[in-house]
Amino acid sequence: MTNPLLATDSYKQSHFRQYPPEARQISAYVEARTNPFSDDVLFFGLQAYLRKALQRPISDKDIERAAQICSAHGVPFNREGWQQIVDDHAGLLPLEIKALPEGSLVPSGVPLVQLENTDDRMPWLTTWVETALLRAVWYPSTVATMSFKCKQVIYRGLLATSEEPDQQIPFKLHDFGARGVSSSESAALGGMAHLVNFAGTDTMEALEAASEYYDAEVAGFSIPAAEHSTMTSWGPERETAAYANVLDQFARKDKLVAVVSDSYDIHNAVRNIWCGTLKDQVLASGATVVIRPDSGSPVETPLKVLETLWQSYGGTENAKGARLLNPAVRVIQGDGMTLATIEQLVAEMVRKRWSLDNIAFGMGGGLLQHVNRDTMRFAMKANAMKTEDGQWKDVFKMPVSDPNKASKAGRQAVVFQNGQLVARKFDEVDPADDQLKVVYRDGKLHESSSFDDVRARANDGLKQSLSSG
């Protein structure tokens, strides 16, 4: 979709006629309400929306096309309002948007974004953008939070079993999710959200997104790797030759190459090929060969592979009392990985005295696709209305049938209280203490974050969460 006037729900097209006649400005906020998935949300993605959507002026052509579609669709169209935006605002939306710094770890129930219209003729505009704005925030923030929760689990395992947890953690969870999402844009936004926490990805659209929206050079990295088609095309009788070819092509000193090894029998491949026929070639190459199981139990299979590799290649016991394989071989487990199975596998590795240096994890659809707006109960709600006399009036909902859906009344601020971010009414705090800062006003970006900035905040959140937990 390229027409911004259609980037909303149908019923929004009629709302310009529904606000009270005295309305001049509408204020609204975005939050992740209290939810069963996570007590905190890793806020991310707003800047991509600001740069991609809100800096593109709407045009007379957009208005004409939207008018045609709305007429045929059976809903009103606010031609006068949109024409005012084109004529008086150069096609850029007269909104003020405040937000917390992206990469912040924010308690659920605390506003992430606060916005209002800046042209008194357009109180309808604030909530008109709800569909696109909420979508721009909930999806990357939920993926970033999922990735962050996995990082917490893995980092704790590294602290228990690794001598260099900070050096190891960036490449411990690899994104395999590009093919499992609903669109290229989802791959870009979700993949970029994962890269806030880690540096390993096979979702290349995420690299372009991080560069375009957050000025990153190259936000993620990968290595040469085999897939089943390149292995099975050799046939079962030439399985060893298929693996040997990968070594010939890519195994170089101090380089990594990953080889999926379960096309027929993962345990035979590890025991008789990687630890037998090809062992000398692996060792002579000076490379690290990463064995990838891709079927079976996501916990028991990689553990059995590790044991077989240990029996053949050996290794050392590190200062944490954990076994560290010969650097010639490692394992990556990408099949069946979810937050729950990562927790199980990490726990078993710690229990069995395996260093997490030996393994990397991969996630696909579980990372980028198995989330929705309700995962963290994201919502955008109107909270105040400015009337013709210049006074702000609280706006809120409080359904007796579901108190959990009650919304905040009054324009919001977010302040630190005892080191914790909390929501307060804007009129009740010193504006200097408000952590919601203007990021967009009337078509111009007022604050921006680099990808390094976002990553640094997220890493601070990781350390704080572990120290408090």
UniProtKB/TrEMBL annotation:
It catalyses: beta-nicotinamide D-ribonucleotide + diphosphate = 5-phospho-alpha-D-ribose 1-diphosphate + nicotinamide + H(+). Pfam families: NAMPT_N, NAPRTase. The keyword Nucleotide-binding does not apply. Keywords: Glycosyltransferase, Ligase, Pyridine nucleotide biosynthesis, Transferase. Residues 5-97 form the Nicotinamide phosphoribosyltransferase N-terminal domain. Residues 447-469 are annotated as: Disordered. Residues 447-460 have a biased composition (Basic and acidic residues). GO terms for molecular function: glycosyltransferase activity; nicotinate phosphoribosyltransferase activity. The keyword Ligase applies. SUPFAM superfamilies: Nicotinate/Quinolinate PRTase C-terminal domain-like. Its EC number is 2.4.2.12. Residues 171-441 form the Nicotinate/nicotinamide phosphoribosyltransferase domain. Pathway: Cofactor biosynthesis; NAD(+) biosynthesis; nicotinamide D-ribonucleotide from 5-phospho-alpha-D-ribose 1-diphosphate and nicotinamide: step 1/1. Transmembrane segments: none annotated. NCBIfam families: PRK09198.1. Belongs to the NAPRTase family. This is Nicotinamide phosphoribosyltransferase. It comes from Roseibium porphyridii.
